[in-house]
Amino acid sequence: MQSKPQRHGTISNDARREPAADSLDRRDFLKSFGAGAVAAAVAPQAARAVTPASASTAPPSTPKTAGALPMGKIGDLELSRLMLGTNHITFHMHSRDLRYVDQLSRHYNSDEKIIETFAAAEANGVNTFMTHSDAKIEKLFKEYRDKRGGKMKWIVAPWNSAEGTVTDLAGYQRTVPALVDSGVDALYVPGMLTGPLVNQGKGMLIGEMLNVIKAAGLPAGVASHGLDVNRFCEKAKLPVDFHVKTFHHLKYPTAVKPEELAKLRQSAERYPRGDLKADYAEVPGFWCGNPEETAEFMKGVAKPWIAFKVMAAGAIPPRDAFRYAYSNGADFILAGMFDFQIAEDARIARDTLAALKNRPRPWRG
């Protein structure tokens, strides 16, 4: 089996690589089978990736060999249970203390490569792209849908606009109509905003922002890193149509240790923008400090749940990450994927969902 490419925002080869069923010494392989057999063995591996070379024309239809991804619903939207994330193409990759990784992504993901990524996702059954508002990505995605025949759904968090960062109600009243005109299918309030608002005692403003979205006729969601946001929204009965919540286990080598997490919680130090420090950290890299608590709480939430950061920004292999998220209640998974990772990740999602027998939380979407 080939070594798998490294995962989003990390450089650990072991993080992305799946365990091989058996290993074969390369020298012995060459002696036994010869160069012709090597070529025959490698060809099927290369054929596994579905990365359209003709993205300058209409995107290819979903190949029969790729198989359709299971679907769920948010409102009237039919969405793939695996969704394409955004940090790798908006260049906000989490790389812990390896600062060059984000720059590496910038050099790889040219405008045309980003459009190819949309096409590769759709070719493999991923019909939904989620992102925060970004003028460049909006332009590229509109080109993909309007000029190249793309059919992907588009879920956006208002955040950046021509007037600056969108952080207040007036900003939402100004920005949401523009995004609707651009063709978005659903909108959500991002975690960069919901966490500080709840922690500063201004959580009811989230409800007003949701009402602006709902008045535009679109499903309205809330994203968060900390479970306090989800608890607040449910307790206050805010008009939330779907939750977008970080979710991953803490059983990877670079995960925050229990004693470290306990210290963070005890100190309850607040960032200037209002986030509790225990919600997430770049070093040590974690984005869900209470996965068991999150899974338990979400059992009682009768709204669709999109789990993100399921691979802890590249520290957990996708097979492990997807299984954990789906089996513990997530209705959808948001995954940042480079074009060359999409075919494999879509296959893993299909296989994982097909093998899933029982889960403690009913499907809510």
Radius of gyration: 21 Å
The computed structural class is alpha/beta
Strand content: 5-15%
Report how far the terminal alpha carbons are from each other.
Answer: 35 Å
Q: CATH superfamily name?
A: NADP-dependent oxidoreductase domain
Strand order of the largest sheet: 3-12-11-10-9-8-5-4
Number of helices: 14
- How many individual domains? 1
Features:
alpha/beta, eight-stranded parallel β-sheet, 14 helices, disordered N terminus, two-stranded antiparallel sheet, TIM Barrel, 365 residues
Describe this structure in words.
The chain is of the alpha/beta class and 365 residues long. The chain has a single domain (47-355), classed as NADP-dependent oxidoreductase domain (TIM Barrel, Alpha-Beta Barrel). Helix content is 42%, strand content 13%. It is built from 14 helices and twelve strands. It has an eight-stranded parallel sheet. Strands 1-2 form a two-stranded antiparallel ribbon. The protein has a two-stranded antiparallel sheet with strand order 6-7. α13 (318-327) links the parallel β11 (305-308) and β12. The longest helix is centred in the N-terminal third of the chain and has 23 residues, at 26-48. The chain is globular and about 50 Å long. The protein starts with 12 loop residues before the first helix and ends in a 10-residue tail after the last helix. Mean pLDDT is 81; it is low at 1-65 and 270-276.
